[in-house]
Structure formats: structure tokens, C-alpha cells
Amino acid sequence: MNIIILMFLIISISILIYIFIDDEHNDLLQARLTKISQVNHIEEENKEEKFSLKEEIYKLLEPFLASFLKRKDKMKSTRQLLLEAGYASGEEEASKFVLKKIFFALMGVIIGICMSLMNRSAPLFSLFSLFICTYGMFKFPDFQLKSIIKKRSDDIAYNLPDALDLLTVCVEAGLGLDAALSRVSVEFNRTAPVLAKELGKVNKDILAGVQRQDAFRNLANRNNVPDLKSFTALLIQTDKLGTSIAQSLRVYADTVRTRRRQRVEALAAKASVKMIIPMVLFILPSMFIVLMGPAAISLMGTFGKSGIGK
User: 219 vs 8, 187, 204, 284, CA distance in Å?
Assistant: First the structure.
């Protein structure tokens, strides 16, 4: 009986993971261009079954999702999280993300029921485990999304001072701000792809006819990075007042580099405190065993021969 329940649990989880976890996360603009030009037509045909199944499930539950997402604050927070993670943030994408959370909650229900049937524990404990599994799996997509956001934010904050230095050099060499942003985006495409794509989007927005200030505001809204928000505010203010952008960039680049050094020093200061727990739990016990083990064995042998231990 337990083997049947375990097989059912594995099959259910595998199906849900296959449907709702994407294999790769490409740039949104590049994905749309690829879809329009049909360059990777063979790959699209291979994924057609998976995407069609997701679309059918979404269409089936679309009325329920529409009623669930009527709260504007809930929709706004979901769309903002998707935007900061680098994904499309329209209403349809937010609805699909909520649908993904619902199916993960169903996965948690299945896991909780199977655990209860396999353990045959008390009803109260079974109900508690069912609630924990359901709530944990419902929140799992949020945790995954926030992890992606934090990784992107840390990557942008770490590489921003170097990008500002190169941007300052390009502006002082005579390039305009738009051309300098494009040059920095190209140069940082390998070392800092996230920051390079964001700067490239700013340049593409400006070339598409978006006002420069709006393009900079969109850059700040897409990324929850304080240094980047300050950088966009500096560019907007410099563009309004008409001051020297090269001098402003040089001063701000030094400021951002100082902040990065201070963050690294803070992390280094916390390292000694964080090492206490693994040292006490893992390193010190093994050291005591290695150092005191032979002595303890020798003492046990000596006491055994002398008859003291009898």
C-alpha cells in the first residue's frame, strides 16, 4: 500500500513540475523576436505540447483567476515581483503565476495526504502536516521568485561601479549618453549580462521613441536596487538641469564604489560570527574525537588489564 501511495506521489509531482517549471529563462525581447522570426521553429514544435497543456489549464481556470485577481494591490504586487525578476509583468502573466501557485498548493495537498496515509499518525498531526505542506508549496513560487530578484539585485549592485567607470570614460571621450550606454551594454555583455541587458533596454526604449527620463524611470522600476535608483535619479536631474554629466558620473562612481567596499567589509565582519555555528556543531566535535579518541582507547585498555573496570 505504501509503495502505491509513493508511486502516485512521485508521478503527481513529476507531472506538475513538468507543466509549471520552465526549462530556461530567456530575455523577453529576444524570446518575442525569436517567436516572430521563427528561427527556432523546431524547438518550438518540441515544446508545443507542454505549452498547449499549460494554456488549456489556464483557459479552464481563467474565470476563477479573474475573480481572484480583482484586488488591485494583490495584482500590483505580483506584477512588480515579476517585473523585478526580469519576466513579463502583464495581467496574463500575473494570472499564470497565480495559477502556478495554486497548482503547487494542490501538490502540497497531495504530499500531505500521502504522508498522512503512509505514517498513519494522529488526526491532529495529519491535519497540521497537511496545512504546512499546502501553505509551503503555495508560497514556494514566491520564494523562488524572490530568490531570483535578490540574485539579480546583488549582481547589478556588484557590477554597477565598474559600469559607471566605463560610462564615465565613454562620456569624457566624447560619446553621447545614449551611445555610451550602448557601448557599456556591449562591453558588459559577458561579465555582467543582467546589467548589460538592463542598460540595453534603456537604449532601445530611447531609440523606440520613449522619452529619456521615462526610460530611466522604467529602469528604476524594473530593478529594486538602491544604487541604481540613485543613478537614474542623477541622470534625470542632470538631464533637466543641463549640468556636466561626466563630472556627475565620476563623483557618483566613486560614491558607489565606496558603498560596495563597505558592503564587502560588513560581510567580512559577519563571517566570523556565522562560522561559530558550523564550528561548534561539526568541526569541534570531530577534533575532540580525533584528539581524545586514541587517549580514551588507551585508558580503557589500561583499566581493563588492571581490572579496575571490572
Answer: 46, 19, 12, 49
